[in-house]
Amino acid sequence: MSTRYRLIVWKDFRLWCKVETHGPMAKDVVRDMMALLSPQAGYSIEMQISCEENRILETGPHGTRLLAIEPIFTTVDISSLDIH
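User: That's the sequence. What structure does it adopt?
Assistant: Structure tokens below.
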């Protein structure tokens, strides 16, 4: 499983959006978003990372099938990440 990132963005202390990204360009997306949404413009960002997931399965007469994948996110300190 690749690492998933979730950015929770506030503007002027109000929830503005949530963005999830994963895949080969995920770190670039996070880096670009953080550069565009600066504290000087009134934005604050909480970052969450998912390195684990829950899988919801169904077992029946035709075998087992995957119904859903649910990422498990943990809030992390942005300054501790190596996203450069």
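The first strand starts at residue 4 and ends at 11.
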